[in-house]
Design goal:
517 residues; alpha+beta; Deoxyribonuclease I, Chain A; 2 domains; six-stranded mixed sheet
């Protein structure tokens, strides 16, 4: 064969291989979030037997307390209450309660039993008198990125105390007398509490709404005291803190490192990666340490660290990209999505010159924002007739839908109506579950707690994570769920684990562009 013909043939082969490569994408989507503030909130897979024994003992204490269901005043004393009242009286006019009101509150709360009369009181739960202040003060991010934690079981605090009085002294000092710079202002944690609005929580009376700030503070202090009492009752004093430290080290302190390591190793061959619920700190780490990718982020980042990202291999698409996020967001009611939840980018592939719309989205807990977002993305897609859509999302759909929960069947009906399909195909059910999680008893909403013995049957196992694409555009193969970080799925494994720091599976699929007929 003449040299020139051999070279020509080689160029044809190279061009063919290049075209084939450019029309095949390894795509992954992953909601990387898990533990935020309370390392005990969800059951995790943990090889340390002390963890399961401790958490099981806490659950049994609360579900079957017997004689251990003592009065509130036996755990949170009158002296503690009086000290707390004096601090509340020193606060602003919004904090005012009369002496008579405080006395009436004590007469009610002090004689309640700690489990049946306080922790399990459904009205207290629905009024949000414990869960609301817990959310506002569990972990506080200060100016400069520092964090401070309320001294309690349900935060990342690992302070140790010899006595309950020592704990209460530290709690009071932190809540009322320790100043932090937050948004340019000096505040103490108690300043961050917000009124509970009767219009949103109708069980709150008019009177309770007016004095909801001191009410929240009192109920939160009692909650924290009870949980410490329970934890110390089922283990050696302070022993549970050693378990807490191990969890925090893996799932908080090393979370970003572990997450990035999974992306850099197991998923190094992914051309396109959609991530959800990413913090600013993780975004900074990605940009510094993840080589070979162009990283797209929302123009306005989430104040709560819940940002959706799109990562693409740098040599796959041209650098020029169009951010369509605002165009899509305008079509969605403001209450449906928050800044950072959605990212929509328009990109052009270098070799084929094909145009793409890439989307990453994190839905609300009940999935009720998912269909409005899908509709808005679809409208954009229809207006860009020469673009192909690849959409990675945490849709938060449920096998059994309701008026309050987005059912996966209804979601997939809508997907198909738009001539799209999913990495799981057209039909999706519980076989494609991407979560396996359950709340423990160490959190304020006990109605959502699951005992250790009930984990297998009552865990949240639902198909929530998807990669969507045009049915006429791609063939798909090798769709995988991964809850280990090593391209493996283990059935009924509670998430997160110490080596897989997310409560959602990572989902990956191979998409091959269909040849034009």
């Amino acid at each position: 064969m003449p040299p020139d013909k051999g070279m020509a043939l080689l160029e044809i082969v190279r061009a063919t291989l290049a075209t084939a490569k450019s029309s095949t994408f390894n795509v992954a989507t992953w909601n990387i979030a898990a533990i935020n503030n309370n390392p005990f909130e969800y059951w995790i897979t943990y090889t340390n037997k002390d963890y399961n024994n401790f958490m099981e003992a806490v659950g049994n204490f609360i579900e079957y307390p017997g004689e251990k269901d003592v009065m509130v005043e036996d755990v949170f004393t009158r002296s503690m209450f009086d000290t707390l009242v004096e601090e509340c009286k020193e606060k602003s006019i919004k904090w005012k309660m009369t002496t008579e009101q405080f006395q009436k509150l004590w007469e009610d709360l002090s004689k309640r039993k700690i489990i049946s009369g306080f922790l399990k009181d459904k009205q207290l739960g629905e009024k949000r008198l414990m869960s609301m202040p817990d959310r506002m003060t569990s972990t506080i991010t200060t100016d400069g990125g520092g964090k401070t934690n309320r001294p309690c079981v349900t935060s990342s605090s690992v302070e140790t105390f010899e006595t309950m009085e020592d704990w209460f002294t530290s709690w009071m000092k932190w809540m009322f007398n320790t100043e932090f710079n937050i948004k340019g202002e000096k505040v103490v944690p108690a300043d961050l509490l917000r009124k509970i609005d009767q219009s949103k929580y109708p069980l709150i009376s008019n009177e309770e709404e007016k004095m909801s700030l001191p009410l929240q503070t009192v109920h939160l202090a009692i909650l924290d005291a009870i949980l410490i009492h329970i934890c110390d009752s089922v283990s050696e004093k302070g022993e549970f803190l050693e378990i807490k430290k191990e969890i925090l080290d893996s799932l908080v302190n090393k979370k970003n490192d572990t997450t990035l390591a999974i992306l850099k190793s197991t998923y190094a061959d992914c051309n396109i990666i959609m991530l959800q619920e990413c913090t600013e700190a993780f975004i900074a780490k990605l940009k510094e340490e993840l080589e070979g990718y162009t990283i797209f982020t929302p123009k306005k980042l989430s104040a709560t660290g819940q940002n959706s990202l799109i990562l693409v291999k740098s040599q796959l698409f041209y650098d020029e990209a169009i951010d369509y996020t605002n165009d899509v967001s305008k079509q969605i009611a403001l209450e449906k999505i928050a800044p950072g939840d959605l990212l929509v980018m328009g990109l052009t592939e270098q070799k084929s010159k094909d145009k793409y719309i890439l989307c990453s989205f994190h839905g609300d807990t009940n999935g009720l924002s998912t269909l409005p977002v899908l509709n808005a993305v679809h409208e954009l897609h229809m207006s860009k007739t020469n673009h192909k859509l690849i959409f990675g999302l945490d849709a938060n759909t449920y096998t059994k839908g309701s008026k309050d929960l987005q059912g996966v069947k209804e979601f997939m009906d809508d997907v198909r109506s738009k001539h799209l399909t999913s990495c799981w195909g057209d039909e999706v059910d519980s076989r494609h579950s991407t979560t396996c999680k359950a709340r423990t008893h160490l959190q304020p909403q006990l109605q959502k707690a699951t005992l250790f013995k009930d984990l297998k049957g009552k865990a949240d196992k639902n198909p929530k994570d998807f990669i969507l694409f045009g049915k006429g555009d791609f063939d798909h193969t090798m769709c995988k769920r991964d809850n280990t970080g090593v391209w493996k799925y283990v059935e009924d494994r509670m998430l997160p684990t110490l080596t897989f720091p997310s409560d959602h599976c990572l989902v990956a699929v191979n998409l091959t562009l269909k040849k034009k007929k």
